[in-house]
Amino acid sequence: MSDSTVEAKPTGKAPFARAAVILLGVIGGIQVTDPIIASVSLVRASDSLDFSASIQALAAGISTLALAATVIPGGVIADRYGRRHVLMVALLVGAVGQLITAFAPATGLYLLGRVIAGMAMGVLFGASYALLREVASKALGPAMGLYNVANVVVALTFGFVGGALATANWRFSFMLLPVLSIICFFIVPKVLPKVAPLKHVSRDYLGMVLVGVGVAGVLYGISNAAVDIANPKCWLPILIGFVAFAAFAILESKLKNPVFPIRLLAHPAFLGTVIMGIFWNLANGSITQMLANIWQYVFDWNTVQVSLGQLPMSVAGIAGSLIAGAMIGKGKKIVTVAASGYVLMVVGFLFMLLVSTTSGFLVFLPGMFLAGFGWMTSATSQGTSWIALSPARFFGPVTSSKLTVGQFGYALGLSGSTAMVSLFTIKGVSNATNGAVSGDGAWAQIGDYLKTGKSSIPELQALSQGQLAGFYVDAFKLTSLIIAIILVVAGVFMWFLLRSKKASIPVDVWLGEEPAEPATAASA
Q1: pLDDT tens digits for 2-24?
Q2: What burial letters (b/e) apply to 281-290, b meaning 16+ CB within 10 Å?
Q3: Cβ–Cβ contacts within 10 Å for residue 234, how many?
Q4: I need a labelling partner for 94 at 20 to 30 A (CA). Which of 32, 222, 263, 518 fits?
Q5: Which of 193, 195, 520 is nearest to 384 (CA)?
């Protein structure tokens, strides 16, 4: 043991079940790709089924909420009934949900299909992620890198094909992943090991309900923050979510066999890993949404151009995953690898300060490459650390909770960055129009003018599109700077937590459990 968090033994060329890791990565990629396909097909599905504005908003996020609410219970189920068996069932249930959506004749069945698919995706992730430790041998870092690469490749390939199918008919796009799911279903027994169910798995059903309500409430509220943070649709679900979380924490602290060990969140290494996950996901969500918006509003790109424009981040991410995995496999400490990823993300966001209204694509490229490389370096570090620090008795729910943390950070990045860019743009336009364009409806007016060059408001029409684009670019740059500062603060906090002397205490000992086999992940 080192004097700071969980020590890794250099694994060098330690073998791992490569085919099994790739298969698990592909299965994990199904969970990543499902919301991408739903997103690109939403407008056409909405037109076909006559969604109202409120139903369209619900349809956009309902599967994500179902996933986030059920992912920890899904981990419990996988522990109780066997991870491989549950994984296979989740593949079939997810396929059924997607096919219900594909053939839905009306709104109700469309939403039902998305809920079923979302719930299955949560279980799918938890089971596939937990099985990764079983097939990684002593090379958890390299295995995690390969797992992440498979996730990205599946998302890129099937997301692009799904988008093309949606152009022809939105229903075709939802038939794509069921085919992949069924293929994986038949391969799983041949490639993945059968893992015996765990004994003494929690039956804390109330706790599972509370954590589900907490996660769904907070994520739904955050998703509405970009529209209006003062709206009850934003703050009320968040309030309900935090109340549910508080009740969950009180309940779990009193149970002898909780669904999730609350004391684990006080372990410095685990808390540092949580912070690592929240903020690399925040960076990912922020820059992905910010680039998509600025390219469409300021540079008039279409959605295909946006998708192609973001490819360099994905390519950089693949490289970052493989290199980070190799570094951890050779004995580099996780905190060192993760910190390097955070530095790259910060520099990537700072490069965005070079953007102007006349910038070409090459101006964006360095920042995109550094940010993409950086967050996937941190993602591989976090995944390795998370699995290594998951206590044996709570392995399923703790490993599954990684997705909850990621969803929180990503949603915060999407909504937070969108809200900041909108707010700063409105402020600039309001100053230029002496307050004529301000308030709740200002962004809709600004967005329409950026797209059409026309406005019914004389003061707004008096501004050129170039001036308006300038306000938007300034807002984009200020938001990039703020996010870079947030990443610095989070990275420093993460560093000190992972370097803490108490971080070396094995998690099973910390929780008062029987010591398990030493973890193989690096940290400080």
Answers
A1: 333 444 443 444 467 899 999 99
A2: bbbbbbbbbb
A3: 21
A4: 222
A5: 520
